[in-house]
Amino acid sequence: MVFWLAVLFVTIFWLLPALWAFISHGQRRRRRGASSADNTLVEARSRALLRDLLDEREFQQLTQYGYLDIASPNYEDRVYRIPGCAGWVCVYEKGQALVNLCVQPVEPLPINDVIALHKLMIEGNEHGYLARANQIPLFFPMQSDDEQRGLS
């Protein structure tokens, strides 16, 4: 009896999630069936949209440092650091990292669209953005790059 309960446990908690991941991966691949020419066009449009959205300082920061800092519209001394590649948004207050935020689109988007999504959500409805975000605690608090360079 205990053996069959163990088999049932393994089936439910190990095999079913693996089966679900395999099926959902196949569905995503079928949906994503665009050609490389289509992907190139999508990436170019995404880059152009982000370039139009950012001011010169923001664009330079993103290209030079690989991240975009957005000042909080509601909290003084708070900055959201959006990575230029896939990753968590880091929240800084007074130059100290507080928490990482995870906000992902439901469907895959080009990275430039994800950067634009974060920027627009923070600036347009920061409280809604924070309500949707999953908070990932920091295990090793860190200073912002400006603090480390003595620029603040």
Word description of this protein:
Mean pLDDT is 79; it is low at 147-152. The protein has helices at 2-31, 36-53, 56-65, 111-124, 126-132, 145-149; strands at residues 67-71, 78-83, 89-93, 96-102, 134-137. The protein is α+β, with helices and mostly antiparallel strands and 152 residues long. Strand 1 and strand 2 (78-83) form a beta hairpin.
The helix/strand order is HHHEEEEHHEH
Strand order of the largest sheet: 1-2-3-4-5
Give the % helix: 55-70%
Number of helices: 6
- Rg, please? 20 Å
**Average pLDDT over all residues:** 79
- The class by helix and strand makeup works out as alpha+beta
For the biggest sheet, the summary is: 5 strands, antiparallel
Termini gap: 66 Å
General shape: extended
Q: Quick one: how many beta strands?
A: 5
State the low-pLDDT regions, or none.
147-152
Beta-strand content bin: 15-25%
Keywords:
alpha+beta, 6 helices, 5 strands, 55% helix, 18% strand
Can you describe this structure in just a few lines?
The protein has 152 residues and is of the alpha+beta class. The chain is 55% helix and 18% strand.
